Amino acid sequence: MSVPKPPKGLFIKTYGCQANVYDSERMRDVLAPLGYAPVDSAEAADLVVLNTCHIREKATEKVFSELGRLKEMKQLSGGAMRIAVAGCVAQAEGQEIMRRQPAVDMVVGPQSYHRLPEMIARLSRQTGDILEVDFAAEEKFDALPKSRQVSGPSAFLAVQEGCDKFCTFCVVPYTRGAEFSRSADAIMAEAHELASKGVREIVLVGQNVNAWHGAAPALEGRGGDWRLGNLIRHIARIGFERIRYMTSHPRDMSDDLIDAHRDVEALSPFLHLPVQAGSDRILKAMNRQHTAADYLRIVERVRDARPDIAFASDFIVGFPGESDKDFEDTLGLVKAVGFAQAYSFKYSPRPGTPAAGMQLQVEEAVKDERLARLQALINEQSQAFNTATVGRRLPVLFSRAGKHAGQVLGYSPYMQSVHVENGAHLSGLVAQVEIVGASMTSLTGRQERISVVNQEASA
Ligand code: 5AD
Ligand code: SF4
User: Fold this and answer.
1) Structural domain 139-387, CATH architecture
2) b/e map of 333-342 (b: 16 or more CB within 10 Å)?
3) The whole model's pTM is what?
4) Tens digit of pLDDT for each residue in 276-331?
5) Assigned fold of 393-458
6) What's the CA-to-centroid distance between 24 and ligand 2, angstroms?
7) Would you call 82 helix, strand, or coil by DSSP?
8) Distance in Å, CA 53 to ligand 2 centroid
């Protein structure tokens, strides 16, 4: 009688953006047929994958220090542990990783992880190259398993990959390659698969997700080209409770997408729309291809379509040549919009990008001071936004357990995180919650008056 093989432990650590979160999930799908099952720590794993981010220097450095720790674990395991580096650092610095950290067994770029099974086989035979950094997004999506393992009520679905915008500070066009949109047919099939597995919220992801475009699926009859707004309308018909998309570029906020915010009830009233800066001079130097006034006009149009929409954004301070006046313009834009959330970063010169070679790099101390001022303003706005929801009843999607027993965490339609005590039974559900408290980063909901919206999910 054959004895079933024990599962092999897989630990994937994900850095960076939502595209990486999606890729990590798909790596799990790719590796499952080989007997790999997720474990909770690197120590317990036979294979550790670092799915890396190259966007800023700090993100890259974290990878090398984590590899140092893994090397020691590998030695303790007698060399049995396998280490793979995936993601954008793998793409950009594959050879360098192999040279700097010999404990690494495999390097696989974001377009090549469907080849992990054959790489592992080659590794066990100790033959051939174990560095895969080809650019072929189309091939990758075709090769990934059609079935997806889901965990929790929310799932990411990658609709496009790469970027053609070439902002002068950004490595993405080099690490993720040219813009590639998956076909509407393939996306709809994956959305149906997720719905059949009980997913309630679908998040369409891509580096420049609103650049998505494609031919209408054959079944839709009339043909023609779709943009993201059309796709969202059709995905909504499947019956998800929530639909989101990220991350977007202001230039691609087309009419169909703004209309979808007006017409599609399930489309969350939340838009993450990075602007990066509020000075036209700096926006030009960044090659953003829009002005501050263009951005404000878009905000106004989206607000007209969906008055309760909450905005989030990304900012870079200390871009080369940024003067005090330029920075004041950024603060002015933040005040004009009123953000629910925003991420702000000090400019980090990235090898190979045009801005890294620009004159007039801003001193670190000036960047620190500007970052602190910008973050103080954003924090004020987040606190004000959150405080304004106290006393309201909001539908909350509860996605996971909180830190202490019985606590459950979820998020509001405006992407505020909400925690409720004694609510473990709500996990995986959307429930109406009375908001009773607010901090800068989260809300407290009251359980007494909770009514469950989608009871069947608890079955
Ligand atoms: N330096 C600092 N921040 C950057 N980002 C992208 N590239 C850089 C860089 N070189 C920020 C942008 C982007 C977010 C994902 O990371 O704000 O929107
Ligand atoms: Fe990078 Fe600009 Fe493309 Fe965003 S739009 S991924 S910032 S190049």
Assistant:
1) Alpha-Beta Horseshoe (3.80)
2) bbeebebbbb
3) 0.91
4) 999 999 999 999 999 999 999 999 999 999 999 999 999 999 999 999 999 999 99
5) OB fold (Dihydrolipoamide Acetyltransferase, E2P) (2.40.50)
6) 21
7) strand
8) 14
